[in-house]
Structures are given as structure tokens and as C-alpha cells.
Design a protein that fits this description.
By secondary structure, the chain is α/β, with parallel strands linked by helices. The protein has helices spanning about 5-25, 35-40, 45-50, 65-75, 90-100, 125-130, 145-150, 150-165, 175-180, 280-295, 300-305, 335-345, 375-380, 395-405, 420-430, 440-450, and strands at about 55-60, 80-85, 115, 135, 170-175, 190-195, 220-225, 230-235, 245-255, 260-265, 270-275, 315-320, 325-330, 350-355, 385-390, 410-415, 430-435. The protein has 2 domains: about 5-305, UDP-N-acetylmuramoyl-L-alanine:D-glutamate ligase (3-Layer(aba) Sandwich), CATH 3.40.1190.10; about 315-450, Protein-Tyrosine Phosphatase, Chain A (Alpha-Beta Complex). The chain has a 9-stranded mixed sheet with strand order 2-3-1-4-5-6-9-10-11, with helices on both faces. Bound molecules: zinc ion.
Length: about 450
Amino acid sequence: MKKPNPVSTVLSVAAGKFTRFVLRKTGRGGTAIPGIVSMKVCKSILAAVSDGMKIIVVTGTNGKTTSCNMIEHALTEAGCDCLRDKAGANMLHGIASDLVCNASWNGKPRHPYAVIECDEAALKLVAPQINPAAIVVTNLFSDQVDRYGGVQNTLKEIRTGVEKSPKSTLILNAEDPLSASLSLNVPNKVIWYGMEESVGVRGDVDLSDAGVCPVCGSEYTYDYHIYAQLGGFCCPKCGYKRQKPYVSVTSIDRIASDGSTVQMKVGGKERTVRIALPAVYNVYNAAGTIAAARAVGIPVQKAIDSLGTVHSAFGRLETFDLDGTRLQMILVKNPAGCNQAFSYLTSLEEDFTAVLCLNNRTGDGHDISWINDTDYEKLCADPHLKKIYVAGECAKELSERLTKAGAGDDLQEILTDYKVLVARLKEEKRTVFALPNYTSMMELRSALNAETGNKEFWE
Ligand SMILES: [Zn+2]
């Protein structure tokens, strides 16, 4: 995209910065508004404020925020000056807010690197303006069905964004047939990451999202499965299949609540990798991080070292201390993510309380029917699960689902007042796992923050 002229650049940046200043003075964290104002003044301001930056864009349905966090940490640890002050959401105007407010007054970027989380549908608007060095696609699972009309549509949205960014290196999950198909018929360089059959992960297989071979329309066969539609897929008719990854996990030696140790082959070389975040899906995020870091020239070993010291992102296995009661928060928004969270919980050998919160506001997707496709049976069957608190505006629906999954009245309790809930959790002195969806997470967080004295995230 053509860069705007210097006068409209300066005016647009000033308008954005001033708007953010006023918003903060009035105590609002409002995040997309400076971008809206900036782009009103100059439509192509993103092209100016990102000019010359090396930007990694992260999109996909699950794991965007954690991946961004890991990649940002890898770049920072490697000594790259990476834009960190981000309050914007992951849509066009939120991203514009962040880039504009972090540019100098004449619209020059202040940081040579940035890692940007981008909504799947916003990629086609954002990418052509900021020319990403790399686009990471984490995976594609059914998500917020009423927002985009299914996972195939989401795939189309991302594809449009990729087609508008022919120079960006694609970082793709080799085992996801959906994201893998983005490499077809585009000139982009691709770096694949993935897991081999030898890791022996056997999660819940669900091929409803897998689709059919994009070349000939046949159904896939699989050599092995990881979870959901991820695995060693192959088209029996035309031979289209999983590509051999550049970053490849060959075994998982240890997986616990404080992280995992895995073996990887990176560019054919064996490496031991310690990841300071738990759960199998973070092993994928870690492999993607190494691939992304490689795409912008970070030495592989530097990226690997950074994974041992990474902290969790907002709402993603974030840990709160309630006077000695440990609460870990896992944002869940679809069956695949929720099942992964259950796999993590049930893999730990310790008693716990679960807090499940469900709202159905715009930020969550109004359709909550995904809870019917989620494996609550697995959670309820865990002997270490001692109590479930059900909260949020759809607590009743969720509670009925849990009853169906085998949670009796002695195990579950509806408690919709978050303040009361937090007080109760403190008394129990048992590890708590809270699994809220987006807007209920915001409510639970403010109750937790009120208790622990943490500040809201934009302060
Ligand atoms: Zn085929």
C-alpha cells in the first residue's frame, strides 16, 4: 500500500495519540477508538507507522495470544527491540491504535519489531498495509459459529489475507489440514512446524472440522492423530498430505503443571526444549514460536532458550494467589480449546475445584450450543475433581449440560456472584482451575483483582 503524505501522517498520529490521552485521563481503557480516529484522518496511516518494521502477525482460532506472548518473549530475549505496549484489540482499529500510539509524532515507528495478534477476518485488512515479515496461523477450529458462519469461512477469510501478502513467510501447523491448505496456490515461502507420530499424544479425535482434500475433494485418511483434526493426514486419491515440518516435536519427555520438556528436530538437528508453560497445545505454540523466530532471523538456540522463561499471557494459564489458594485461569471459547483444557486438568495428579463461567454476549458469540460438543464427561469423571462452581449468564444451561455429563448436585453448584465465589474459593484451600469464556473472564478477573489488588491490564 502507498504511504500517505507527511502532513496527513502527522495529523493522523496526533489525532490518535490525543484521543488515547483523553481516554486514559477519563479512566477508560477503550482500545480501538484512537485507531478509528487516526484512520478517519488518514486511511492508510498503518502503512506509514509500520514502514520498515519487521512484523510477525499471529492469527488462527486457538492460541493466538499465547503464541504472540511467546514470540514476543523470544524476540526480546534475542535482543530485538519489540513493540510491547499493546492495549488494542486484534481487529483493524485496535491494531491501528497500537501502532499509531507507539510511533513518533512524525509517524515513524519507534520499534524495529512487532508481534501482532490479528483476528482471522481482519487479516485481509491489516496485512496489506503492514507487510508482515511472517504470518503465523496457529490452527483452525470451529469457533464462534454465529460470527463467521463456520470454520470453512474462517479459512477463506485467512486465505484472502494471505493472498494479499505474497511476500510474507507463512508459519503453518503441518498437522492441521485446514491451515496447511493455505500454502496451496500462493507464492509465499512456508515454514512448517508440527509433531511426529513418535510423540504418542492421543487426544480426542474430532474430524468434523477437517474438511476434504482441497485438491481433489476426497476425504482424508490419517497415519496418526494428535487431537481434533490434527494429525498425519493424507489424501488417498491424489496424494496431497502433511508436509514434513522444519520444526518438529519428536517426543514429550515430561509434561506437568509448571511446563514441559520435549525433544525437537529443528532443521534436522536434535534439540532438547524446556517450555515454561504446561499443556500439549503449548508445545505446538512453542514449535510455532521457533519457526516464527527463524523467519525473522533469530538464531534457533536463542528462541529455544527463551521458551524456558516465558510467562503466561492474560487469561491463558495465568495464575492468581488468593491467600495461599492457587487459581489458574484458562480462557475457553470452543470445544477444541475446552477439551484441551480438560486434558490438561485431568492429567495432573492433584485434587482441584473447577470454576466454569459462560456468557453469551457479542464478545463470546451468542450461540452456546458448542457446549453440547464439549467433553464435560471427561472432566466429571476425574476422581480429583472435588467441586464445580458454575457462573455466568448461561450458568443454568451449563449446569444442565454438566448434569447430563454426570455431575450430581453434590458436585456442582451455581454461584453467579463473582465476589461471593472468590470468597468461597479462598476458604477451600484447594487448587482452582477457572475456565471462563471471554466476557465472563473479564468479570471474574475484576473480582479477582479486587481481592488481590492487581490492576486492570491497560493501567
Ligand atoms: Zn486429494
